[in-house]
Specification:
Layout: H1 26-41, E1 46-49, E2 53-57, E3 61-69, E4 75-77, E5 89-92, E6 95-96, E7 106-109, E8 115-119, E9 130-137, E10 145-155, E11 161-176, E12 180-197, E13 207-210, E14 216-235, E15 241-253, E16 260-264, E17 272-292, E18 298-314, E19 320-324, E20 327-337, E21 340-341, E22 347-348, E23 351-362, H2 367-372, E24 379-388, E25 399-406
């Protein structure tokens, strides 16, 4: 990652656990360790969510937290690697949070100082955006100081919809046969916030937001980072590597404004849920190609630089939608063990870990119609319904539409 706001690269190399009695090639072992090391060097240990930039309406609040990537590349919340003697130090526009200017909003730091809540001021401040920063010692033994920044632009939404989301995902995969093996890992964190000029809820509480069909985005901010590491191996029937390819890619969200498709129809059987949202990422990377020479040594034959893209999509059959006093929240969490044993017998402890949180709100809500419903704060589960023939997020020609059932 090349974001100046992000922490320096401090990940350690994961330990490979070999099976007892397994014969290993020293060359192959070193090559695999080289791949793991390059994997670690491309990922920053610490990030600040919701990201390095965000939009927040006046009088609204947002949660800000420090997160870190473990050796298995999963995202953890808290202060696992912080110095026990020095707590993180938070500032607002350069001033300590304990002596902040109320005109810039209010930052409250939680127990342990690894997370905070920021409430925007009641009017747009003279210094806008408001820069919230936190710095801390990288570890008990390191003298390196990590500084993370979130630049928050305060807006007055008026009669517009406010939409924001945060996303974090870690995904590993491994496919192997007698002669081929492919392992890959992808880590993504992303966030977006926007103001959308659209139709307000009707008197029955029916809400439709669709930026691909007329609703316009008046303010937009996004941030995030992604890394992708792929190892491809071709072997003979004796398990000796003949060719190897290492692909390391990384990037940030594009400048494109990715919108949202959302509907809440309170009528029985009506569509209720998120049908499209997400982020597109673009970045750079290097592919390294290895082959065996005439002396049977595995050497680098070629390398190629290139540009690469990926994306994240929100809207899942296990989304949880909740009604709030001024809109909705949507949450999704998926986690499962994806550990595998590679061709050399090394055990890799990996997981699939994806979660996101979406906020959809409007200042001038039809509270009379909202409150007459007896389902306020009830939990719902979204189920797939049909495929919409609408463009979504510039990354697909269709998007998943959903219905919703009460739990």
């Amino acid at each position: 990652m090349d974001n100046s706001e992000h922490a320096k690269k401090t990940l350690s190399v994961p330990i490979l656990k070999w099976k007892p009695g397994k014969q290993k090639s020293i060359i192959l072992s070193l090559l695999l360790l080289l791949f793991v090391k390059s994997h670690s060097q491309n990922i920053s240990n610490y990030i600040l969510l919701p990201g390095y930039s965000s939009i927040l309406p006046v009088d609204e609040q947002m949660n800000i937290g420090i997160y870190w990537f473990g050796d298995d590349m999963t995202l953890h919340e808290g202060k696992n690697s912080f110095s026990g003697n020095q707590l993180p130090e938070w500032t607002v526009n350069g001033q300590p949070w304990t002596n902040q200017n109320p005109a810039n909003g209010k930052l409250s730091v939680g127990f342990g100082s690894d997370h905070a809540t920021y409430i925007a001021p009641s009017k747009i401040p003279a210094t806008n955006p408001v820069v919230i920063a936190v710095k801390f010692q990288a570890s008990d033994t390191s003298k390196e100081i990590v500084t993370l920044i979130c630049s928050v632009t305060i807006v007055d939404p008026g009669n517009k919809w406010y939409v924001s989301f945060t996303y974090s995902g870690t995904n590993y995969s491994s496919d192997k046969s007698a002669t081929e093996e492919r392992t890959s890992s992808k880590q993504i964190t992303g966030s977006a916030s926007m103001l959308i000029k659209g139709t307000p809820p009707d008197e029955d509480g029916h809400v439709t937001i669709n930026t691909s069909e007329g609703d316009t985005i008046s303010s937009y901010s996004s941030s995030g980072q992604w890394t992708e590491n792929i190892l491809e191996i071709s072997k003979d029937m004796n398990g000796v590597i003949l060719e190897k390819t290492i692909r390391n890619h990384s990037g940030q969200p594009t400048k494109d404004k990715t919108g949202i498709e959302f509907e809440y129809d309170p009528a029985p059987g009506g569509i209720k849920g998120l049908t499209g949202a997400g982020l597109d990422f673009s970045g750079q990377g290097k592919d390294l190609f290895y082959v065996r020479d005439n002396n049977n040594r595995l050497i680098k034959k070629d390398e190629a630089d290139g540009t690469f893209t990926t994306n994240i999509l929100l809207g899942h059959d296990k989304d949880i939608l909740k009604k709030a006093s001024n809109g909705f929240t949507i949450d999704y969490i998926e986690k499962k063990d994806t550990s595998y044993i590679d061709a050399l017998g090394a055990v890799h402890q990996t997981v699939l870990d994806i979660k996101y949180h979406v906020i959809i709100s409007r200042k001038a809500f039809h509270r009379a119609a909202w409150n007459q419903k007896k389902t306020v704060n009830s939990h719902y589960t979204i189920f797939p319904s049909f495929i919409c023939n609408t463009r979504s997020l510039n990354v697909a020609n269709s998007s998943l539409c959903v219905t919703i059932k009460k739990v």
